[in-house]
Request: fold
Amino acid sequence: MKKFFKVILFLVLAVVVIITAGITYVKTALPNVGPAPDLKVPLTAANIERGKYLVTSVAGCMDCHSPRDPNRLTFPVYTDSIGAGGLKFGHEFGLPGSFFSPNITPYAMSKYTDGELFKVITTGETRKGKPLFPIMPYLTFGKMDKMDIYAIIAYLRTIPSVAKDNIPEATRDFPVSILINTMPQKPAFTQRPNPADTVAYGKYLVAFAGCADCHTPQDDKGQPLPGMDLAGGNPFRMYTGGVVRTANITPDKETGIGLWNKAQFFAAIRKYQGKNLPAIHTGDFNTIMPYNTFSKMTDSDLSAVYAYLRTIKPVNNSVVKFDPQAK
Reply:
């Protein structure tokens, strides 16, 4: 019997040692996506113009990296602190912890070389070797055309500095607090499709805009539900009460946008453009959809997005847009 218990004790200790060694490796050796490239992005007019368009009209960088007004429709950014960071993404959005967007104005980003900035945007590993949680869409940006990432960097070098420090450190729930070190990945860049190939270019824009991040429903582990691409239904708790759910943007004719023509699609994206956004009170409908950003996409780019969405699999998924009583 003593021999039996010794064997059990040995096995338990072996398991503990293996687990401890594994955790130590993950926490100390990862992430490791390689060094930042030796890179100097040319601040040409073309680069800056393309970068401005991507940042302000497609990728929605400032919608996450700016403080936003939760008491007005569509959560507009505060115009005096664009890019200053500090926006919280926490359990109210179904995330495993509390994460805060960093200041991406030159006030903070001047510490980064172009290569270091390129690395963090496309891999999720900071200049100090720390991992980012993929609410920062580096897994997507690492699959875009690297010339577009260069353009984003060029534009960010030119925006006004906003002196904002003391952004809180992220807190991560277990086991994400350990697994996050495994999340950064080496990029796998693609070439931006020719805009003349409308569907392919639309697919590229939909990826760049992160549409699937909100419009594809997820399981309780944050993984996309198979067969439900862009079918909507992801819940977001509003600061003023209630739960809003993302729309089904598949071409399903009953529950999606299958009956919309292009003009209706344009109207939906631009419905708040140039309007005075009203105050929101407790129990009122609100949305985190970045209408202000996407409404500035060019007609040709919105046409490409529409063309691509017409080609994806229609999914019959009825969504209750807003429930003021939900918690």
